[in-house]
Amino acid sequence: MKKSELRTPCYVVQERKLRENLEILREIREETGCHILLAQKAFSMYRVYPLIGRYLDGATASGLHEARLGYEEMGKENHIFSPAYREEEMPEILRMCDHIVFNSPAQFRKYKDLVRRYEIQTAEQVENSKTAGRSVKNAGGISMGLRINPECSTQEGHAIYDPCAPYSRLGTTLERLQAELTEEEICELDGLHFHTLCEQNSDDLATTLRAVEEKFGRYLSRMKWVNFGGGHHITREDYDRELLKKCIRHVKETYGVEVYLEPGEAVALNAGELITEVLEIVDNGMKIAILDTSAACHMPDVLEMPYRPPLKGAVSTEDADLRENKYVYRLAGPTCLAGDVIGDYVFDHPLQCGERLVFQDMAIYTMVKTNTFNGMNLPDIVLEKEDGECEIVRTFGYEDFKSRL
Ligand SMILES: Cc1ncc(COP(=O)(O)O)c(C=O)c1O
Prior knowledge:
Bound molecules: pyridoxal-5'-phosphate
CATH superfamily of the largest domain: Alanine racemase
């Protein structure tokens, strides 16, 4: 199918752009020997997991369902981090995950013996399966890690994305680590994990690493691995990849550990569009175009973060000289929420009902966050192949709305 024939609204993920991002990430892996995982929270379009799996080491999950998706659809290294695990989910997590990262000393202490017992049982099964000719997953054992909080904020303005903000529940501070775990228990950990960045460059990683080393340096060489989390905007044009490589090599060489990165955004950055149609234009002091897509339902980060998404062929009023431009429109969704507004944009022509508009950078933190408020239908999910052909991966309808209620 051609792009112009697609039903709107739809997310169109571009295979070519995804591959270009993956090539950049593979180069970092190959040049430094680090491991890179897809953080599924940002992008879980599993139709392209086989492609992603050809370039990256595996996937990481925020909970059981993402872990299962990575296990079933990518089938490579499978990691999980959650601030708190439910006991009844642990058997499945143990069966599917290679790394389990705990958020607090109490969670680690609660589950560590369960993990080790599972490993012993699995080792026995592996022995038995050798004679029976079967293969068993997790034969290499499960690695346990603790998420640390280096208490080093490097981002301004977005406190809700800052795990180092005061009273953060994410990660264990040095003080809590030393107060709550014995030296023997710390030695039972295989790795330390930190995630503190959001859409940041490698200078902020370097700053964070200095804090990590200053506070937790004495523990690093006892570990097998250190996970630098996500938030590294590696595939962005101005990202300093040489400094990233330097940081990775420094940690590997100084402490003799493996290094993991788990970017989400960087994997599918600028690799997707959201195509929408103008349904109506109303006037109330300015022209307001009502679209068949909604900020609240289809791009909630526009309201949550908030930010104004790039739009093909138009500029945000924040970046335009309004005295010279006649065709200014507020783009808004069709829901009842008064604030379901995507933003104000300047066009070089008057908008018409039925015209298609294309929002850019819509692969990440969109499909994974949609909702059906007001009974809004979900956008189709489409893969645009390298030859320009479009494959409709998923469509939605009334049953998807009804079945969740
Ligand atoms: C623990 C963890 N790892 C990885 C990521 C992925 O971050 P990003 O998509 O910004 O690269 C996040 C995002 O919140 C996270 O919390």
